[in-house]
Amino acid sequence: MESGNQIVEEPIIEVQGLLTKFDDHVIHENLDLSVKRGEVLGIVGGSGTGKSVLLRTILGLKSPDGGNIRVFGKDLEMLPEDERRAQERRWGVLFQEGALFSALTVAQNVQVAYREHLHMGQKLMDELAAVKIAMVGLRSGAADLFPSELSGGMKKRAGLARALALDPEILFLDEPTAGLDPIGAAAFDELITDLAHTLGLTVVMVTHDLDTLYATCDRIAVLAERRVILIGTIDDMLQSEHPWIREYFHGPRARAAFAGK
Amino acid sequence: MAEASGAQGPSGQGAAASYAVIDRVGGFTFRPAGDWSVTPILAIDDDLRAFVAAKPVGESAVFDMSALIRLDTAGAWLIDRTVASLEAQGVKVSYEGLKEGHKILLDKVGEGGVPKPTVPERSSLYVEVVGRIGAAVVAMGLETLTFVEFLGHVLATIWRSIRHPSRFRLTPLVHHMEKAGFDALPLVCLLTFLIGAVIAQQGATQLRRFGADVFTVNLIAIIFLREVGILLTAIIVAGRSGSAFTAEIGSMKMREEIDAMRTLGLDPMDMLVVPRVLALLFTMPLLAFIGDIMGLIGGGVVAVMQLNMSPAVYIERLRAAADFWTFGVGLLKAPFMAIVIALVGCRAGLDVTGSAESVGTQTTSSVVRSIFLVIILDAIFAMFFTAVGI
């Protein structure tokens, strides 16, 4: 795996003309999005613009009502079951609340993929789980705790360790810093940047956190009016004349976040 | 001189992991090659462990990484583990031909130090069994204590409501009487009717052998009025309303609504527990009464159809078989069972902690516990009534 953040001009995820609706309520219409290999992309948008729905659709948890989505150059909907499983092993997902399996300890949560997909021996599983747990910055004692015994920040880190178990190429994050205190959130931003760099990950995250956008994202995609209205760097955002983007990136909280950089 | 390779997939695409150990003056060169990512390395993990465990001789080792095509954290861990073990054996290790990306990974994996997989403590079966029994006994004792305390708390709250009627909540009381009492009617009626018919039918078949089938009526009257009517009603109410109490209060507890009530100066006892307890206290005897009647009707239908008894004769024989106390003994139990079911249901709801999972377990345990207690209570009453001779 090549490391470093060289951004190669070849889309790893490509969404074209996506249509998503719930009954008569149209969420996305003619939505295009392309994610480059090796970049960290933030998806922002007002409440109800379907950021999380977009993430779920890319992951295949919800089928698109129109258009197509290609990840690693393949349309998930068209793939036979076993290829689809193989594809799913090439990405990792951190859900908003961690979504750890409550009946398993942190270490067992990380080992699920090893056990189910690779039939790995217990000794190596224990070692690798310990490596991942250390990598996401949890102390080693946390390995034997159950999810109910963890704080919010620890749950997210444990969820991240599970998402990284198979060394995925793409990491999806749903509101990674929501519910964390500013210090915890900043530490998590740093962790994600560090891991993306070390492991050569492509990261796609949905976030509301302006600090996270500034600290970690190479590019930002803005969701509004049922599609991606703008995708680009922070500077592109700041120069945009679109009223919502102006309000978002020039509001008092944005100025405060930007002043810190 | 040692070599190992993982036979993984088609070769030539770097799809397999392998390594070679080449002797050198003063030590050896360790040469990993191919794809050292999580799947291929499974094939060489054991060989690598054996290689280190055999304590390779030499003062220094050179890790020549130039042939390595792909490395992920799992592969990096294998290399880091091997290096750490060699260093612990006193071998000096140096790298050669290390790519920048691989170095970052190795450093990252090494940061956590050598992880020690924790071994969970396992005590012997004997200690485990005795320990669990002890823990269960202690838990049961504590549960009894908290139940008694809760009963006292509820009684004190009811007493306060009587002295200050303005604190009393009429609307929720009526609401719960409708939900727990009135809405349970169809189910109670249907089940008691059916069980009454079944008992009559089975009883008639057995008693006919002795030519005593007219005593079927006595059987129905005694067994239904004294025991089955109330017990069946109590079990239905426990399953229907006791569980609903736990789930309602439990989900409020989970969403911090109960804490919100307290901060607004409202007592959850007044608002949630007392109306439910009183609602069951008032409706259970009525439900049990209707259950008794339906059971007798069910028995009567069988008697009329199977024993060719006219309805008038059936009623006449009923009056002869049962006096007031046969009926009174059954109904007397209703309020006590009502209180047990309501208290267990509310208490379990208040015991919910944070998670949705906890609402589920508390609801289950509330139903199990209240049915258990209802049956125990019934047995105690049976002994008591026998002792006092009614």
UniProtKB/TrEMBL annotation, chain A:
Family annotation (PROSITE patterns): ABC_TRANSPORTER_1 (PS00211), ABC_TRANSPORTER_2 (PS50893)
InterPro entries for this protein: AAA+_ATPase (IPR003593), ABC_transporter-like_ATP-bd (IPR003439), ABC_transporter-like_CS (IPR017871), P-loop_NTPase (IPR027417)
Signal peptide: none
ABC transporter domain sequence ranges: 13-250
Transmembrane segments: none
Keywords of the record: ATP-binding, Nucleotide-binding, Transport
Gene Ontology terms for molecular function: ATP binding; ATP hydrolysis activity
Gene3D superfamilies, per database record: P-loop containing nucleotide triphosphate hydrolases
Transport recorded as keyword: yes
Family recorded in the similarity comment: Belongs to the ABC transporter superfamily.
Protein name: ATP-binding cassette domain-containing protein
Organism: Parvibaculum sedimenti
